[in-house]
Amino acid sequence: MGNNQAYTFMEETVMGLYKINKLTVPVLKAVLEPYRGTDIDSGGSADLKAKNGLEVPDIVIKLLDPKTFKKLEPMRLAVMKHPKDYKKRTEEQELLQEKYYEARYEAFHKITKKTFGWC
Fold it and tell me: What are the residue ranges spanned by the domains of the chain?
């Protein structure tokens, strides 16, 4: 299984468990453990979203670093209200979106590197 496929499988598993309310911290850690020390590549992301708009990185942050999630959540909610068509977004909206995704990326990778040794 390639790194892109591994991410897709992990993403589908996490989202599936989250959607049926079975994703706890121990379950999440068990799901992510097989990828320890790998160079899992989010380029394989299917960009799955839960009904509340959370994506897998948001869910991982929410469960494994709730303090950071609470800090990022207002930005995420604001970004979700932006027009889907990027041509209709203001420069301020684009900057906020960029800031949010950068902060989320950093938080997600800090957690996965520290906890699971992802490269």
Answer: 3-116
Region of 37 (left: φ > 0; alpha: ψ -120 to 50; beta: rest) is left
Q: What is the pTM of this model?
A: 0.89
Start-end of H helices in the chain: 3-19, 25-32, 56-64, 66-80, 91-116
Whether the per-residue pLDDT at 3 is higher than 70: the answer is no
DSSP calls for 17-49 = HHHTT---HHHHHHHHGGGTT----GGG-----
Q: Which of 104, 101, 68 is nearest to 93 (CA)?
A: 101
**Length of the chain in terms of residues written:** 119
Cβ 112 vs Cβ 65: under 8 Å:
no
**4, pLDDT greater than 80:** no
Q: Which of 19, 72, 21, 25 is nearest to 49 (CA)?
A: 19
Secondary structure class of 86 (helix, strand, coil): helix
